[in-house]
Amino acid sequence: MARKTGSHSDITGPRVRAAALKLFAAHGFAAVSMRQIAAEVGVQAGALYLYTPDKQSLLFDLMRDHMQAVLDAWGAEDKPEGPVSELETFTRFHIRFHLERPEEVFVSYMELRNLEPENFEALGVMRREYEQELETILKRGQDEGVFDVDDIKLTTLALIAMLNGVTTWYKPDGRLSLARVEAIYSDMAGKAVRMPRRKERLRKLEAQQASE
Amino acid sequence: MARKTGSHSDITGPRVRAAALKLFAAHGFAAVSMRQIAAEVGVQAGALYLYTPDKQSLLFDLMRDHMQAVLDAWGAEDKPEGPVSELETFTRFHIRFHLERPEEVFVSYMELRNLEPENFEALGVMRREYEQELETILKRGQDEGVFDVDDIKLTTLALIAMLNGVTTWYKPDGRLSLARVEAIYSDMAGKAVRMPRRKERLRKLEAQQASE
DNA sequence: GGTTGATGTGAACGCATGTTCATATAGGTT
DNA sequence: AACCTATATGAACATGCGTTCACATCAACC
Q1: A152 contacts in B (CB within 8 Å)?
Q2: pLDDT digits over A30-65, tens only?
Q3: For B147, phi and psi rounded to 5 degrees?
Q4: Average pLDDT, integer, range A74-93
Q5: Which residues 81-110 of chain A have a CB within 8 Å of chain B?
Q6: Residue A125, Cα to own-chain centre: how many angstroms?
Q7: A23 in contact with B at a CB cutoff of 8 Å?
Q8: Shortest Cα distance from A57 to chain B (angstroms)?
């Protein structure tokens, strides 16, 4: 049943997380105090401890929930057939998802060093799981001869860094629409790894000769 | 003349900056105290104020000196002719220069939000100046028809983000040599913006017809 | 309608922060 | 040998930190 006061746990809880996210993104974890977060919520600092055991957990929960959301959303995405389409789907998904959550992304990539070792490790596992998705796509494309990638791990990291960079400058009301940004990044990523047609023809020729 | 104690300004000064850089890179500006920096130097906290007016200046000076070093080094670089070679020179320069100064780079890109507005602005000017160098190369390539870039500003930022990403994972004693990393990134950047040969032929044909 | 338990206050805890300053030291200069 | 000054100390300042806790408040339940 709904209460007016005395039972705001279900309201205040999310508000605490929202305030923490906003402030961490704006000023950094270490630069934000519990009292600032409390003020943003409209509550005294002590009340925060009804919703989090400590400041560190507040940060870790935000980051873990975000990474889990990324993984879940990618899992739920429709995957087309073929590495080229898969790569396009991945890059478009990544851009779209990240632009819709700029603060979560910012915090997740900036505050890693403020995590306690145990939490850092847990998040690293999740991040590598996500990177693995892209790596698998690149590997498949390489095997099928449609991608020309020198080093798959390096390329994975380079592409993700490029895609993540979008959050540092994109403004929803800016010059470019989300759809346009999505298309441009997706196109660049595709071109960066795709096998040039010349080289492709050469490869096919070699493969043909080898099988004769 | 050399003193044993009493006159270490020329030694302690650089050591203070080195300690600050190391600690800021490892834990973040806000998370590092003046006492920690002093301890790293082997001095009491008060002594730091013989070398910097305050903590903020310590950060800003590091970042400004780094950006100035980038600009100077790029200015001194031999520039080949033609956008394709220029782009390769730029990407290789960027990777090499940044991998040789991982801590400066890390601090310069992570601590922007801890700068006071005035310092933030000053650094923004320098960063845009550097980005302008790449933007000019892309623009020239676009005009000459050897690059196929949808949006020059966006592409500039995307490429720089990709190149900067290298500092987050590269380890000098790792699997890949600096030269190899340089080559791979440079290659990816080139492919991401280069005009496909098919499209190039088509363009030339159109241009020819238009001039008849 | 009195009791209970969830929700929040506000003061207090010990400790760390950035910065200042009177004081000490030990070199270089005369 | 006496003085000067650059260099460093270490204590002190006011302020803020994360966290705890005795206490208040008030909706929900018996």
Answers
A1: none
A2: 999 999 999 999 999 999 999 999 999 999 999 999
A3: -110, 150
A4: 97
A5: 110
A6: 14
A7: no
A8: 17
What mean pLDDT do residues B42-71 have?
A: 97
Helix axes B102-110 and B83-99, enclosed angle (nearest 10): 100
Q: For residue A148, which of B192, B165, B161 has the smallest C-alpha distance?
A: B192
Residue matched to tokens 């890109």 = B109
In this prediction, residue B207 has a pLDDT band, given cuts at 50, 70 and 90, of: confident
Q: Which long-range contacts (CB under 8 A, 24 or more apart) does B68-71 make?
A: B68/B126, B69/B101, B69/B104, B70/B97, B70/B130, B71/B126, B71/B129, B71/B130
User: Can you tell me the mean pLDDT for A181-206?
Assistant: 88
Mean pLDDT computed over B52-66: 97
Q: Is B197 on the interface with A (CB under 8 A)?
A: yes
Find residue B147's DSSP bridge partners: B194
The number of residues making up chain B comes to 212
- In 3D space, the residue among A102, A174, A161, A110 whose CA is nearest the CA of residue A134 turns out to be A161
How many angstroms is C1' of C19 away from CA of B54? 8
Q: For position A8, what pLDDT does the model report?
A: 66
pTM for the complete prediction? 0.90
Q: What is the pLDDT of residue B3?
A: 38
Contacts of A192 in chain B (CB under 8 A): 188-189, 191-192
A210 touches strand D (CB under 7 A): no
Could you tell me which of B106, B82, B80 has the C-alpha nearest to residue B93?
Answer: B80
Say if the Cβ atoms of B26 and A113 lie within 8 Å.
yes
Backbone φ, ψ for residue A150 (5° rounding): -70, -55
CA gap A34, A20 in Å, rounded: 9
